[in-house]
Amino acid sequence: MFEILYNALVCTYNFNETSVSGGMIATFTSNRTVGICKPNQLPIGFFMEDYPTENYYASSVTNFSQVRIAIGIGEYRTDIHEEGFYNINDLLYCNPEGKITNNLLYKGNPIVGIVNYVENNVIGFLSIFDNLESINKPVVKEKIKPPSRSKNKFNRYTALMRRNK
């Protein structure tokens, strides 16, 4: 099950693999052709339905099927994910089967989304499609510089004192 709660765009692309489940992650494999995304590949979106379906279109010239891909930033809900425990704010990555996962083994790969809903083996998430390395960096504390000393002991405080005299 793959459900769109909010999505910016749905596009149709050629698909040259044998089958896929709705909710798996898609990536480009050639000109306007998509396939199942693997770790270290750039994700572009999610397959919207299971393919092949009863009424899919297969071109006799190219042997491609036409598939619909949900692309861009959106909010989704799915039960197609790697088994495991998911928590709110977990970062999501792509596993070798093209399913979303929060497994830290894939940390450093492009981030697919962030979990915002967990219930009964269904997770909801916001798509990100980015590599948020800054999330993993520690916060650097800025050093507070001492006030600079001015020449002739003239600063804003002394200026106000002279003005009031």
How would you characterize this protein structure?
By secondary structure, the protein is mainly beta. It has a single domain, classed as Virus Head Decoration Protein, Chain: A (Beta Barrel). Helix content is 8%, strand content 39%. The protein contains two helices and nine strands. The protein has helices spanning 133-136, 156-164, and strands spanning 2-15, 25-30, 33-36, 45-47, 65-78, 91-94, 100-101, 111-119, 122-130. The chain has a five-stranded mixed barrel. The longest helix is centred in the C-terminal third of the chain and has 9 residues, at 156-164. 26% of the residues are buried. The mean pLDDT is 81.
Helices, strands, pairings?
Blueprint (H helix, E strand, L loop, with lengths): L1 E14 L9 E6 L2 E4 L8 E3 L17 E14 L12 E4 L5 E2 L9 E9 L2 E9 L2 H4 L19 H9 L1
Parallel strand pairs: 1-3
Antiparallel strand pairs: 1-5, 2-3, 2-4, 4-5, 5-9, 6-7, 6-8, 8-9
The helix content is under 10%
Shape label: elongated
Main sheet: strands, sense, barrel: 5 strands, mixed, barrel
Q: Return the string of H and E elements.
A: EEEEEEEEEHH
Give a short summary of the structure.
It is built from two helices and nine strands; from the N terminus they run E-E-E-E-E-E-E-E-E-H-H. The chain has helices spanning 133-136, 156-164, and strands at 2-15, 25-30, 33-36, 45-47, 65-78, 91-94, 100-101, 111-119, 122-130.
